[in-house]
Design a protein that fits this description.
Blueprint lengths: L6 H11 L4 H8 L6 H14 L4 H12 L5 H9 L5 H12 L2 H13 L6 H13 L4 H15 L3
Helix pairs in contact: 1-3, 4-6, 5-6, 7-9, 8-9
Main location: cytoplasm
InterPro entries: RecX_HTH_2nd, RecX_HTH_3rd, Regulatory_RecX, WH-like_DNA-bd_sf
Family: Belongs to the RecX family.
């Protein structure tokens, strides 16, 4: 027979798998809490002990997404977790430093052996735009990728 997990044990089990933001963990633990006070005390204990950290959560999410998505998409995901505006600004700054390289990397990985045609350029544009890269950056990345990989 399985023993019922305490709210604290359940929270630690979730956090052992990956980082969570406070609002996200609040939603996950809500159905198991007997009262709001119990839930708040567990979340405060997790913060006090260093098990729950919005900074670590943001770093983890950025790390997970940065090799596949652009700044717009990553920042959108971060805003869905009610993080501190200063933390969002810090993430925006660190992401903008590498966005161009990430876009070129994605183009190289996806389109490395293909011949450059107008259709391919359109496909590349859509590919990066759907992943949250801005239109100006997409245009520059495609131009730079073609210059690096298909010199004339």
């Amino acid at each position: 027979m399985r023993q019922k997990l305490s709210l604290k044990a359940r929270a630690l089990r979730y956090l052992a798998g990956r980082e969570y933001s406070r609002p996200e963990l609040l939603r996950k633990l809500g159905p198991y809490a007997e009262s709001e006070d119990e839930l708040e005390s567990v979340l405060n204990w997790l913060l006090k002990c260093g098990y729950l950290s919005d900074q670590r959560f943001a770093d983890s999410l950025v790390h997970r997404m940065q090799n596949r998505y652009g700044n717009q998409r990553i920042l959108y995901e971060l805003t869905q977790h009610d993080l501190d505006p200063d933390l969002l600004a810090e993430c925006r700054t660190s992401l903008s430093e590498s966005e161009s390289e990430r876009a070129i990397y994605l183009l190289q990985r996806k389109f490395a052996s293909q011949e450059v045609t107008p259709e391919l350029k359109a496909k590349m544009y859509r590919y990066l735009a759907q992943r949250g890269f801005s239109s100006n950056l997409v245009q520059r990345a495609i131009k730079n990728w073609i210059a690096e990989n298909h010199p004339e």
